Every structure is written in C-alpha cells, then in structure tokens.
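Hi L., both proteins are below.
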Amino acid sequence: MPRSPILPLAMALLTTLAGQAQTVERLLAEGDSLLAQQRFSKAVEVYTRAITQHPSATTYTARARAWYAMDRTDRFLQDVEQALKADSTFAEANYQRSLYALRGEDHRSAERFSDRGLRNGAVGRLRAQLLLVHGEALAELRRPELAIADLRDGLVQIPDDLDANRTLARMLDETGDHEGALVVLERLCALEPRNPGHWTNRGFELSRLGRWTDALGMFEQALDIDKDEPVALSNRAYALLHLDRNEEAWKDVERSLRYYPANAFALRTRALLRLRKGDLEKACADLSLARILGGISDVDALIQEHCATVPGRR
C-alpha cells in the first residue's frame, strides 16, 4: 500500500511555521535591543519586517512601542488598534490603549482597557503598569478607595512613577489619610528634591495634622528652591499664624498675594491676621473674596462668626 503524502506535507508545513516563528522571535529581540539603544527608526524597520512575516497582536504591539518612543501618536494608535483587532485580550495592547486614553483624559476608556488587560494574564511589570493606569483613571472618576488600592499595588514594583505618586498623595489627602499622604510625599521629595511643590504639599499635610513647627521646615525647604513661590509663602504664613508669629506671617501673606492675588488660602490667612489686629471690615472683605474664589471649607463659618454685624458681609 503506497505511503500517504499527507504526513510529509504536514511535516514540511510545521517545519516552515517553526522557522517563521523563529525568524519573528529573532526580529522582535533585535527590535527590542535597538529600542533600548534609542535607535528608534531602525527599530521600526525591524519590527515592520516582523509584521510582514507574521502580523499579530505581538508584532503590532512591539512596533507601537517604538512609535510611542518617537512621539508618533498617530502611528502608535494605528498599531495598537491593529493589535487589538488581532487579539482584543492581549494585555500589552490593552495597556498601550489605556495609556493613550489616559493621556487624552478619556478616563472611562482608560479604566476599561486597563481593566481588560488586568483580567487577561498581565504579570510582572506589565501588571504594575496596568494597575497604575487603572488607579489614575479611577482617581479621576472619583473612586478614591479603589484608586488608592491599585496605585499602592502598582507602586510596589514601580516606586519611581511620579504621576502615580502624585495622584496617590492627592487621593490620600482627599480621604483624610494625612499620615499616608506624608509617606508618599517624602518619596516624591527624594525623587525630585528640587521641586518646591513636593515640599509645599508635605508641609500642608503636616499642617493638617497640627504639626506646625515641622510644617514650617517643609515650607522653608520649598522657599529655599524658589523664594517667591506664592503657595509656599501662603502656607508658611498660615503655619506662622498658628505659632503666634504674626509679623512674620503678615510679611509672607502680603508677598504671596503680590504674586498670586487670587489665592483664597492667603486671603483667609490675611483675614485671620486682620481679626487679631481688630480690623474687622477689611478682614470680612478678605473672607468674602475667599468665599467667592472657593475651595476653603471654613470660610463660611468664619464669616458667620465674625461678619454678621458688617454690612453686606453675611
């Protein structure tokens, strides 16, 4: 009985496919190496050859990485969409799509794509990246407790992500966990020691805990970097007020308002200093403007307490 030709043909096909897979794997490794060397255009060429050999979620996602590094957002998005068409569950493609949505402030899409990536086998650093995008999206969608959990989890593996640390500190402050926010802000101060905003925010959290002397030290660190930074000046004035150093507080708050006249916090502090001086009418004028500008919870109570007898200030 003659031998069937099917087996040799199948073997030949398997051999061809195996060789093609090895070629694609080699091209992807070469492209990744070029990308690490920041030879972006060359990496695109190599990834394109991989796509020609085998168009798939893996190969399109690889080239998308190079487009992203080159800031070619249009081409990046085209390749990500091709990858998702090939495999809608591919974790890295979902991460790339969620990152694009987050940068475009499409927070619902960012949450949806990052969630899909997390549910479909993301591990290691990729899982951490997806958690950070998911957490940042949840923060903007006003789901702070879930955002905090995701951001903390992702930052275990990627502790130096500045955006995620800033968002986590903000969420912890908003939920009243000032001790937790302090831990994150200490990390930010270590990562970016020349950023006065981190020192100012750290001082603000200490102020929320009533640790006025410690807070003062943080504001002074910020002002050593930028002596005219109006938010740091305003916050230092408020700390000095609580330490009964009124003359120093007055100088700081006046300087703050010179650089930032619409600073409601500085207006509240100046009003409190004016109340101590007995200048009720001007204090109430400051409080009224602070209420119009908004964002300070105790202004209404201060107006009710001190300004009931001042015409037009209730």
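That was the first. Here is the second:
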Amino acid sequence: MLFAAVSALTVMNSVMPEAQAQAYPARPVRLIVSVQPGGNLDLMGRSVADKVSEGLGQRMIVENRPGANSTIGFGSVARAAPDGYTFIMVAQSALVAAKMMRNPPYDPVRDFVGVSLIATLPQMLVVHPSLPAKNLKEFIALAKSRPGELNGATSGNGSGSHLALELFGRMAGVRIMRIPYNGDGPAIIDLLGGQVPVKFDNLSTSLAHARGGKLRALGITSPVRSALLPDLPAISEIVPGFQASIFNGMLAPAGTPLEILTRVHGEIVKFVQTPDIRSRFANQGVELQSSSSPAQFTAYIKSEYTRWAKVLDDAGIKAE
C-alpha cells in the first residue's frame, strides 16, 4: 500500500511541470518597456505582445516604465516574482546603463534570464555630403589626418550611436569628437543641416535621407551587407571584426521556470517567422530573428555585457 502511494506521488510530481506549463498563463502577462512610448523598443514590444497574446490565450500587456536611462524599469523587474507574469524588453543600452552607474538597481546578468532575441537593427555610418569623403577608406584617412577635429553626433550615454562611435574610433584608429544630443531626433536635424558632419544612425531614420542624397552612407554596422542596401559595404570589410548593430530581445526575472520561458520563446519564434511581419520590419531596416533557446539568449546577454563593458573601459568612461 505504501509502495503504491509513493509510486503515485512520484508519477504526480513528474507530470506537474508539464501540467503547470499547460495551465500557464491563468491571467494577463505584463511586458515592461523601459523607455517612452513611440520609440523603436516600444514599437517592437507592442508588436511582439500582440502576436504572443494570440498564442498564450491571455493578453500580454505592455507597460511603459521609463526613466533613469532604463534603470527604473529594469530595477522593478529584477525585484518582480519569477512566476512568468512579468517580462521586459531589452536592448544593449540597458546593459550599458548598469555598467555606467556606481550603485545600479539591478545586475543585467545576475538578475535576469533570457527568453529570446527578437531582432537586430543595423546602424549606418552617415556623413553630411559636404564632408570630403566618398567612401569608408577615404573617411578613415580623413579622420586620421585630422585627429579630434571631426565631430560625431550621438544620442545619450550608452546609446547605440554612442557605443558604435566609441568602438569604431578604437578599431579604426581614429579620434572623432563626440557631440551628445538629447535623443537621435535633434542629432539628425543638426546632421542634415551640416552643423555636425558624422553620425551612426538607425536605418529606419537615415535610409530615406541617404537615398535622397541628403546624407552619404559610408558603411553598415552589421557583420555582412544588408539586403536593403546590397551596394553599401559592411564596415567590417574595411575594419575587420567591427559589429555594432543594436539588438532587441526579451528577458524575465532570474528563477522564472524553464517551462514558462520555453513557452514564451516558442511564441516569439512564431512572431519572427510570420512573413508579413518580417516584411514590414525589413522595410524599416530591422531583421527579425529568434534565439535557438532561452539558454542561448541568456549566454548572448552575458557576452554582450562583457563586450560593451570592455568598450566603456577602453574609452575611459566611468560610472557616474
């Protein structure tokens, strides 16, 4: 009798994780976006949430929690219960933000676990047409001949444009003076006006200007050329190993059950493979792609944090 009871209990325990995964979710799920509504990460989060909601059978509700360079939103999720009802969108700016604070409210590696990569967003190195450099080799030669004289516009500390400029300077052996702006919008306005001649910028905002001749595109930050601009060289063709594309992905609080991570990961895979969604984002210069597993994205986050921390250290950028 005792043996039968123990056997029954063993069987019950073995099927409980599967049963829990099938029952999940029993209520709406929150997706935190740590930036203001309307930006790239917010738009990506909302698109993902709509598609994931269909598969989960419960709404994934986007909640914007901006402020303090994304650390408010990330701090709140780091303290959330790891029960599968709170997730957060992530880009490398959130990894860098923690590195640039003396007492960050979260550790991007310790406090989170990966769900999946969702997209990569190449940037372009663009210059004002008045700059006497027709291609990337000429630009590097010009910058080397005028060290510290060329100005490069970026958005805030730790932004994609800031990191790309710092990495390019070190790998190409040039010194470009950084002019920080409060966002990419004001920076683009001054770039188009010729007040500042150089910028790394998202394809979504600079592609039309480059095609219209208002800016000159010199290279793309993805490892290989983009199908949208097959004639534009990847910067890595001239500066071997250079790669500074922005990524978007989803994280959960550390300790979230693997069964739940796997369930949400599966819905993200469906999202990135949906043809009309892929086409819509491709037209904006965004390549949708998922991780092979939650564990693979967790490893990716660790490697990206290490990579960009070294860039900041090499640039002498200290915690504030």
